[in-house]
Amino acid sequence: MQWTLLLVLLIPASPLFAKDSPKINAAIETELPAIVSLYQKLHAAPELSYQEENTAATMAAELRQAGFEVTTDVGGHGVVGVLKNGEGPTLMLRCDTDALPIVEETGVPYASTVKTEDRRGAIVGVMHACGHDIHMANAVGVARCLSKNQARWSGTLVVICQPAEERGAGAKAMLDDGLFVRFPRPDYAVALHVAPDMAAGTVSTMPGYQQANVDSVDITIKGRGGHGAYPETTVDPIVTAAKLVLDLQTIVSREIRPIDPAVVTVGSIHGGTKHNVIGDDCKLQLTVRSYSPQVRKQLHDAIRRKAAAAAASAGAPEPVVDISEGTPSMYNDPELTERVLAAMRGALGEDNVSIAEPSMGGEDFSRYGLAGTPICMFKLGTLPQQRLDAFAKAGETPPSLHSSKYYPDPEPSLRCGIRAMTATALDLLGKDE
Question: For the domain bounded by 2-211+329-429, which CATH number is listed?
């Protein structure tokens, strides 16, 4: 990995964007007020995963206006825009469209006040707390810019607006609905993701594994309920669950190689109804993260084994272990990532482009890579340096993604994101005259 990083750092900045940068930057500045306005519209009207109908309609209209041939309802509320511009490679740019069940507390004038019913039937607030509104507005900005500068590139541009990323399911749904069959199969796929701890005007990425395998694990420990005063007549599932919580912590510390990243977190445990009642079951919810497929399987197998062993030691019935909502780890293609870094350095300057640190967060953009297309995702700084400095001075960290208080500064964030992604597209699709 160290050698890979060194090679990336030595790649010179791409000259393709630099040659046309005054014209391209002027086009971006012309579009920027409308793109910021679109961002605010999207931010104020978020929709949960699988409910992105109005958001999809907005994005479809924007892509049609930019000259794309648009198909809707791909893999649910997915939107695919295709712009053919002569011979050449096919580049796919992806944005995601869903929001989160969070009541917004940012205080910005365009803050979401939306409330809706979630899949459980509960009424929840809805907020773009993961920056998907920036992702969408950025994609429209890039689409407009490239559509109006077709003399500078040749090939096919595919822009997809993917639903249900927060559920780890949207990419799979679009692929299962023929994304790479019904539409031009991409030679490259590029996406960005907002970063709440990076300065607006900066970007970062890295080759290799950048995001983790993410699995949700639900374990039901079964017992035999009864009176709390007579525990000898019961099989207490809460005691078994407590033992299991501790046993699970030894998987990473004692069964996984120290050089292989892995996380097993018990995020929720629920059992019982009253002080003096021993219930019939206890439920645990885990998030499990890794990079390689081998470690992922090792974690799954160990969790099942630990759960069965804890139940057997208590004389309890076999537990139920359900692994769901899995997202595979995201591997940035090294060769493509080198080109992306070079293009962004040419557009933004060396000082504004850095090598990212790997994360244990998840991202279903990974599935396009597993489907055979080289992919690269880069991070986009979204907070002005003065805001970051103010947090540091107060001894605080900025609100994280999925926080009710996270909000990006849209103008500098979008200016940088559109420049970075446009430069990347021109490098991958660019032609010499």
Answer: 3.40.630.10
